[in-house]
Design brief:
Elements: E1 2-7, H1 15-18, H2 21-28, E2 32-37, H3 54-57, E3 60-61, E4 71-72, H4 74-99, E5 110-121, H5 124-130, E6 135-139, H6 150-153, E7 157-160, H7 170-181, E8 210-213, E9 216-219, H8 229-238
Parallel strand pairs: 1-2, 1-6, 5-6, 5-7
Antiparallel strand pairs: 3-4, 8-9
């Protein structure tokens, strides 16, 4: 089972998507688990979030060097990551040192992701490589970003889901969870459902063969009705995404 540890100021933003359809079933069937950590709950060590005043729960401050907006402070995020996988990272490092395989990535079970527009592009290949980890931590930024010292406290990889900027890291986190989850054997039931494992086509059709809208008829391409699977595959390749 993969446990996704999500560091976010807005855990409620994940509910509607991750508690539905395939990702929901993957949780119910024990393929994945989701855990949330709000940096606001780690602003003062030893105090629980519900006992804090608003001022105590603040996690943002003005950037050094000037500039617009506010920066999320490092310590609340560092404490949240430590709560999520601190012990596992310590045990992992100890085991790697004992075995002499300090750089052996195959032996690592914890992955920490920092979302950044300048990071490594997230692809199907990257999603496949994430399947081997038992714990994946995703740090979701907001405002003008997170104090860079978080990345010095923990080993992590910068990931980008595209050449654009979003309001926060919550959407990228959901994309990563979805892409990785559907690649776990058994989640989709049939591995043929993973589009990139077969000849996928951007245009798909189902019954009825002919539909009519505003007196205009729309037909299914004749090749798909031919029963000639070799020609159908060639047609799909010609229109492949």
């Amino acid at each position: 089972m993969i446990t996704f540890h999500i560091i976010t100021l807005f855990p409620e933003s994940f509910e509607s998507y991750l508690n539905a359809s395939i990702v929901k079933r993957a949780q119910e069937d024990g393929y994945i688990a989701l855990k949330y950590y709000n940096p606001r709950d780690f602003t003062i060590p030893g105090k629980k979030g519900r006992d804090m005043t608003y001022a105590e729960r603040r996690v943002d401050s003005r950037p050094y060097g000037g500039g617009p907006g506010m920066i999320i402070e490092a310590l609340p995020v560092i404490r949240a990551i430590d709560k999520a996988v601190g012990r596992k990272l310590k045990a992992q490092n100890a085991k790697l040192k004992t075995s002499g395989a300090i750089t052996g990535k195959k032996n690592q079970k914890v992955k920490i992701i920092f979302f950044s527009p300048s990071g490594e592009m997230f692809t199907n290949g990257v999603a496949d490589s994430f399947k081997r980890y038992k714990d994946i931590v995703m740090v979701c930024g907001r405002y003008e970003g997170i104090d860079a010292r978080v990345k010095k406290a923990f080993p992590m990889v910068d990931i980008s889901i595209g050449p654009y900027v979003l309001t926060g890291g919550e959407l990228p986190a959901m994309i990563v969870i979805d892409a990785v989850t559907r690649r776990i054997s058994g989640v989709l039931g049939d591995n043929q459902s993973i589009e990139e494992n077969r000849t996928a086509c951007p245009d798909v059709y189902t019954r009825p063969e002919v539909i009519e809208f505003k007196k205009k008829k729309y037909h299914v391409p004749k090749i798909l009705l031919s029963g000639d699977h070799a020609k159908i595959e060639e047609w799909k390749k010609g229109r492949k995404m």
